[in-house]
Amino acid sequence: MASCCNPQFLNPRHSLHLLALVLTVTWHFSLTESAGKIQLKGEVGGNVTFRCPVVKQQTIKFFYLQRGPHIFVNGFYESKKVQPWENTRLGHDKTTVHMDSLNISHSGDYLCLIMYSDSHKTETVIQLSVTANYSKPEATVSCRDRFSCLVTCTSHGGYPGTKMMWNVNGSLDWKVVNNSDMSDPVTMMFNSSSTAHFNCSNGEREFSCHVGNVTSNMFPICTPQKKDPNNHFVIIAAATCSILVFFSIVVWLWRKCKTGQKGGEATDVRQECGVNGWR
Ligand SMILES: *[C@@H]1O[C@H](CO)[C@@H](O)[C@H](O)[C@H]1NC(C)=O
Ligand SMILES: *[C@@H]1O[C@H](CO)[C@@H](O)[C@H](O)[C@H]1NC(C)=O
Ligand SMILES: *[C@@H]1O[C@H](CO)[C@@H](O)[C@H](O)[C@H]1NC(C)=O
Ligand SMILES: *[C@@H]1O[C@H](CO)[C@@H](O)[C@H](O)[C@H]1NC(C)=O
Ligand SMILES: *[C@@H]1O[C@H](CO)[C@@H](O)[C@H](O)[C@H]1NC(C)=O
After folding, report:
1. Phi and psi of 172, rounded to 5°?
2. Alpha-carbon span 269 to 260, nearest angstrom
3. Residues flanking ligand 4, CB < 6 Å
């Protein structure tokens, strides 16, 4: 640690290089005395605060928050700041670090290194896990015929990868055809989808899908075929036809009655046409 006392260390041009040296040394030195990890949770796009535990009421010679053994995140050396990660800010108490604009790649172990004026050192591991909420699953239904439907539920932008699950009311006449959770190589976030086949012989029922704790709406499946929108027209046309046919018969009978009277067999026809036959 002699290098720490070298005034050159305070030269910003050298500080990063020397810092790396100090950090590496410290890492090997105190791995053995590291206590349990502190867990920290954040969401993509959100922020977290690393609170590095301070064990002594003493001047702090240096404080580093680093990612793994070599990557400096934020901190100071004898109150001099070193180039920090852009999305971090040192708290007023000088041993907390605020990190915002979280993305999945920020997940992992961080190390708090503190050296006090009496050269006592402490280090604490903080494990950050960044998660992302899946979008509410959406369903698309395609029916081959009245008895066979394929339903696909999809959801995107979640982390960690989770399988799409089904919740179906009623009969067991359905099965999952496939299931996939694919990760975007850049954002590392997952799209999760699943397709299920429904046998509709047993009538209508309802389903929903869920991924993690995000659940879709309830959707109906195997609903009876929609009424033909032309049905109305057909009914009206049929009614009109029957009325026309009825009146044609009436007219035909009336004419028959009339011709019958002229032809002299009036009595017979009158009986046929009723007492008050059409005149
Ligand atoms: C940090 O996150 C909290 C909620 O977790 C929010 O209320 C706050 O506005 C955020 N701060 C910044 C600077 O984004
Ligand atoms: C799942 O199965 C459906 C129907 O067979 C198909 O359209 C879809 O592409 C499949 N999805 C995957 C991820 O394999
Ligand atoms: C995930 O879904 C989004 C939105 O539908 C799409 O833009 C993106 O390409 C998908 N990513 C993968 C890895 O399938
Ligand atoms: C995650 O944030 C870092 C900055 O902290 C940035 O360099 C990186 O590009 C971001 N990754 C994504 C996928 O946005
Ligand atoms: C659907 O179920 C009925 C009996 O409930 C069965 O007879 C029929 O073969 C099934 N169809 C398919 C496509 O599985």
Report:
1. -95, 15
2. 6
3. 85, 87, 103, 105, 186-187
Q: What DSSP designation does 167 have? A: E
Ligand 4, atom nearest to 105 Cα: 1
The ligand that comes nearest to the alpha carbon of residue 73 is 4
Distances, alpha carbon 258 to alpha carbons 4, 245, 252, 269, in Å: 131, 20, 10, 9
Per the DSSP assignment, residues forming a β-bridge with 189 are none
Tens of pLDDT, residue by residue over 186-214, are 999 999 999 999 999 888 889 999 999 99
Instruction: Write the CB contacts of 143 (distance below 8 Å, at least 6 apart in sequence).
Output: 149, 150, 200
**Collapsing DSSP states into helix, strand and coil, what is residue 101?**
coil
The model's pTM: 0.69
- The half-sphere exposure of 43 on its side-chain side, counting CA atoms within 13 A, is 6
pLDDT digits 0-9 by tens, 51-63: 999 988 889 999 9
Residues 6+ apart with CB under 8 A from 179: 163, 164, 193, 194, 195
Amino acid type, 132 = A
What is the token pair recorded at 123?
């280090």
Amino acid at residue number 11: N
Pair of tokens at residue 149: 């439907």
Nearest CA to 160 out of 177, 179, 178, 182 is that of 182
Alpha carbon of 187 to ligand 4 centroid (Å): 8
Residue type, 106: H
Query: What is the end-to-end Cα distance of the chain in Å, rounded?
Result: 131
- φ, ψ dihedrals at 9, nearest 5°: -55, -30
